[in-house]
Amino acid sequence: MVNLADAAATEAFGASLALLVQPGDVIALSGDLGMGKTSIARGLLAALGLAGEAPSPSFAIVQPYDPPDVRMPVLHVDLYRIDDPAEMAELGLDEAMSDALLLVEWPERAPGYWPHALALTLSPAPDGGRILTADVPTGWRRRWPT
C-alpha cells in the first residue's frame, strides 16, 4: 500500500514505474473517476521521454506512443466506454502486447483479459490523497520495490 498525497505524488509514482517497465508488460489501473489513473499514466509516459502532457485516451480508447517520442512503444488504453468485453478484439491489443507496454485504465470492463498485469488500484484516503494498492504478479515480483 502506498499513500499518494496529491496529484504531483501520483505522477511521481507513475514516473518511478518507468525504471521497472519493459515491452510486453501490462499495467492495469483501477479506481473511480478522478482517482489518478491518468496521472499515473502521464507520469510514466513523461519519464519514458514524452514531451508535453499525454491526453486522456477516453474518446480514442487507444492512444499509441512510439520511439523516438518515448523509449519503448506504449499503448495507453481507456476502456471506460467499452460496454461489452467482446469489443476488445476490435482494438487489436493482442498483436501489440509483445512489443509494447500497455497501460490500461478501467480494466474491469474486460475481466480476465490481462491475468498477468500489474494491477494498481487507487482509492480515496481520509486526508484527501489517494491510497494505491498493488496486486503484483509473478513476472513483476523481482522488479517490484516492496
Q: Can you put this structure into words, describing what you see?
A:
It contains 3 helices and 7 strands. It is globular. It has 146 residues and is an alpha/beta fold. Strands 1-7-6-2-5-4-3 form a 7-stranded mixed sheet. It has a single domain, classed as Rossmann fold, CATH 3.40.50.300. The mean pLDDT is 90.
CATH-level-2 architecture? 3-Layer(aba) Sandwich
Question: How would you spell out the order of helices and strands?
Answer: EHEHEEHEEE
Rg estimate, integer Å: 14 Å
The parts where pLDDT drops under 50 for at least 5 residues are none
Number of domains: 1
Instruction: Let me know the average pLDDT.
Output: 90
> Strand order across the biggest sheet?
1-7-6-2-5-4-3
CATH top level label: Alpha Beta
Q: Which structural category do the helix and sheet elements fall into? A: alpha/beta
Shape verdict: globular
CATH fold-level assignment: Rossmann fold
Portion of residues within helices: 10-25%
Measured between the Cα atoms of the first and last residue, the distance is 9 Å
Major sheet description = 7 strands, mixed
CATH superfamily: P-loop containing nucleotide triphosphate hydrolases
> What portion of residues belong to β-strands?
15-25%
Count of strand segments: 7
Subcellular location: Cytoplasm
Protein name: tRNA threonylcarbamoyladenosine biosynthesis protein TsaE
Family: Belongs to the TsaE family.
InterPro entries: P-loop_NTPase, T6A_TsaE
